Amino acid sequence: MTVIDNHDALGTDAGLRLSEAGARDFFELLKPRVMSLVVFTAFAGLVLAPGHINPVLGAVAILCIAVGAGASGALNMWYDADIDAVMSRTAKRPIPDGRILPQEALAFGLMLSAFSVVILGLAVNWFAAGLLAFTIFFYAVVYTMWLKRSTPQNIVIGGASGAFPPMIGWACVTGGVSLDSIVLFLIIFLWTPAHFWALALFKMRDYGSVGVPMMPNVAGEASTKNQMLVYAVTTAIIAVVPSFTGLASLGYGLFAGVLGIIFVGCSIAVRRMPDGDEKMLPAKKMFAYSVFYLFAVFSALLADHFAARLVSLAGGVL
Q: Which residue in 53, 103, 173, 213 is a FRET match for 119, CA 20 to 30 A apart?
């Protein structure tokens, strides 16, 4: 099937009219499910960072990071509208569905990008704002416009954009980065390939129909499964590192270790799945568990942090 370039054909009368899109349509452009993960991990980075930030400024920081993530999603949907229209998973997104015009999505994304970066810089600090600007650029330009359609390593390299939020949250408090913030970054960065390739396995036809070189389509299912296992093992290992750097306790490390063992077990189940399996149940289960896994790891980090603070406060009272 031939994919039509959205820059040529999606809304040829774009300069003559505006859509009748509502707030819900524009909100959908922000990729709210992805944004929720960004907000949560950024919040974790902000809370776990040493030092203190005014609660109001902290709220402003999280809002700016959320808006920046949404801006990235809008720019991604603008550029990918041509392939989104063909893929079953994305055909009902606002642009291919005709609810929002491409130039509206582009203007919306650019406006939110500028707003989020400038406000974060003015209200919090410019180092964090610079990281946010780089993250938006990396996702919208490096990943979406270049890597996604040119290399099967697209999600490996491009996954960095989704791994920056906790580092940005950390920088909002400290004005810089540290070993611990890099570890938080690496947890998400190394988690991304196994997570996304699980999706790519049961959406191979979709990606094949639009010519996006996802790893299963290029290297084959067997190679992808082997690489997923390597990334799952590496993720499980790096996720327990905070208990050795002093960011978290041994209790956190044990809990993260159990979560990681299950994550690796899911990957082994995918590896044992016959190539060409129509149902792809192990891949679907791994994709679902991978989302839970990341939320659980960062939730455990936060719970461990707050528990330590409570113990410290109780000790001070006693």
A: 103
3-state SS assignment for residue 57:
helix
pLDDT over 50 (residue 14) = no
Residue whose entry in the numeric block shows the structure tokens 């920056």: 164
- Compute the distance between CA of residue 245 and CA of residue 228 in angstroms, rounded to an integer: 26
CA distance 170 to 299: 16
Tokens of 123: 């209200």
* Token representation of residue 219: 């290297």
Residue pair 29/287 in contact by the 8 Å Cβ criterion: no
Q: What is the pLDDT of residue 318?
A: 57
**Packing angle, helices 55-79 and 126-137, rounded to 10:** 20
> CA-CA distance, 254 to 239, in Å (whole number)?
10
Predicted TM-score of the model (pTM): 0.91
In angstroms, the CA 163 to CA 197 distance is 16
Q: Are 2 and 211 in contact (CB under 8 A)?
A: no
| Nearest in space to 58 (alpha carbons), one of 120, 127, 116 | 120
HSE, CB side, 13 Å, CA atoms: give it for residue 211. Answer: 10
- In the block, residue with structure tokens 């707030």: 23
Rounded Cα distance between 95 and 128, Å, is 31
For residue range 222-274, list pLDDT tens digits in order.
Answer: 999 999 999 999 999 999 999 999 999 999 999 999 999 999 999 999 999 99
Q: Is the pLDDT of residue 203 over 60?
A: yes
pLDDT band at residue 314 using 50, 70 and 90 as cut-offs:
confident
- Candidate CATH numbers 3.10.25.10, 3.40.930.10, 1.20.59.10, 1.10.357.140; the one for domain 20-176: 1.10.357.140
Tell me the domain boundaries of the chain: 20-176, 178-318
Tell me the helix, strand and coil percentages in the chain, rounded to 5.
75, 0, 25
Nearest residue to 77 via CA among 158, 145, 163: 145
